[in-house]
Specification:
Shape: globular
CATH superfamily: TerB-like
Strand content: under 5%
CATH class: Mainly Alpha
Number of domains: 1
Structural class: mainly alpha
Radius of gyration: 17 Å
Helix content: over 70%
Number of strands: 0
Distance between the termini: 65 Å
CATH topology: TerB-like
Largest sheet: none
Number of helices: 8
CATH architecture: Orthogonal Bundle
Order of helices and strands: HHHHHHHH
Length: 144
């Protein structure tokens, strides 16, 4: 009866934007944070902080960018689409900085899940980061 009075309207979904370097980085940060299936407030805050600092955004702008990146990450077929964009547009030395930022997100919740590290290493490899540089970044991130 209520369905006749209040018919359900199909949800209108906005099409996702084409990935840009900003969106690609944000989506990869989200992917690392979600790798353990627990997306916690400290990880969200770390992503916002990284996006804000990297792209000179105000906090609200960074949060909006992150929200778009979350949607893009959910619907993206895989990591290569994002890493290819970054490999083509970001110098190697800067990609090392991106990897360190991903470690900051990974460690933001105070936990260090192996699955998160595995995802991060897959992303590093797809970004073209050498095994030696990856090991160095890991050592610095963990304070070893």
């Amino acid at each position: 009866m209520f369905e006749r009075l209040f018919p359900k309207r199909p949800k209108e979904t906005k099409p996702l934007p084409e990935p840009t370097p900003q969106l690609a980085l944000g989506a990869l940060l989200v992917r690392v944070a979600m790798a353990d299936r627990e997306y916690q407030a400290p990880e969200v805050a770390a992503i916002d902080k990284i996006l804000s600092a990297t792209f000179d955004l105000k906090p609200l702008e960074a949060a909006k960018l992150r929200a778009t990146c979350e949607a893009l990450e959910r619907h993206a077929p895989g990591t290569p689409e994002f890493t290819d964009i970054l490999r083509e547009t970001v110098a190697y030395a800067d990609r090392l900085g991106l990897a360190m930022a991903m470690w900051q997100v990974l460690l933001a919740d105070g936990e260090h899940a192996g699955i998160e590290e595995d995802v991060l290493h897959q992303i590093e490899a797809a970004l073209g980061i050498t095994a030696d540089d990856s090991a160095d970044i890991r050592t610095r991130a963990l304070g070893e």
